[in-house]
Amino acid sequence: MRKIKSFIKMLFWHIFKICKIDDKKIVVDCFNGRGYSDNPKLIAEAMHKIDPSYKIVVLISYVKFDSIELPSYVKKVRFGSIKGIYELVTAKLWLGNSRKFYYTSKREGQVYIQTWHGGIGAKKVEKDVINTLSQEYVKYAQKDAAMIDYMLASSKWQKDVFKRSFWYDDKFIEIGYPAYDAFYNSDREVIDKKYRKILNLDKNKKVLIYCPTFRDDESLKYYDLDFEKIIKTLNKKFGGEWVILIKLHPNIASKADSLHYTKDIINVSNIDAIEELEIFADLMITDYSSTMFDFAIMKKVCYIYANDYDEYVKQRDFNLSYDEMPFPIAKTQKELEDNILNFKADTYSEDIDRYLDKLGLFRNPNSSEDIAKFIIEVIK
User: I need a surface site. Which of 187, 213, 246, 283 has the fewest CB within 10 A?
Assistant: First the structure.
């Protein structure tokens, strides 16, 4: 049955090639249809703001299709549908942050901008962990890389990673990183009011967000923190009343209900706007997620809890040394609590700046608009 569906999709792809490419159509694919967010959304919105004649089409999965609300000028189409294939085949520009599927084949005259998901990130991915990838994924990852016209890099360091491990060594956009714009420019008071209303939180509550990445086996057993103890530790160190937001990676967000929640331990895995949640939060705990660097850009405190560090190193390894990072690192609950209690803020900001300079971060608070202008010139 799967082979028949694949054949039908590829057949329609070739049939639709007789249709003309629409020079004003942008097709956005975020996390293979999981929503409208991240760099592709920010770039598409900036292009539409510069020139409202650009038409934005977003591919949304069947599961999320009815629950996703979009601006009136944005059209949503089911990811993987015949209609979705038509939109891809006839669009001038593809904006995506994950690999295109096996049936995708770019036409002459189309432009494909790959933004990837996550800027600076510690863990190895793609070719660097090829032994953990299926042969099927490697095959279409290589095909995807061959179609890319420009890849977006957040830093000199990330550009080097892409050149080494993404089967891609061509043109890069080195203007900034749209997902980071919000960390420079957002009205934090507006975001604070928005999420206190959504989450029904008192204005005096302080917020810690827990953002672990996923494991290859998609197990939840590593998310074993005693959050009640963490709240008590936060109260002791920083004072006030604390709540913890749990934001699981999109790959395992559907399993979030399996964890334990209370009025002070809240599941936000169904909220796509991770950047807004990060701006809203006062502190963060993560493990190997690139969100740690989002917090670094905002000069906010991030704690690392890596209880399976030794095992994870064997499976994934890292592009960055955890020993050199500016974040307090713990492998046990006790170490994490001690790191919270013993945290010294006086040198943290300077350590963060030195580290980001070392990575060659492309600092640009208006990168969405600048990249949009660059792409408009490219597709002309």
Answer: 187
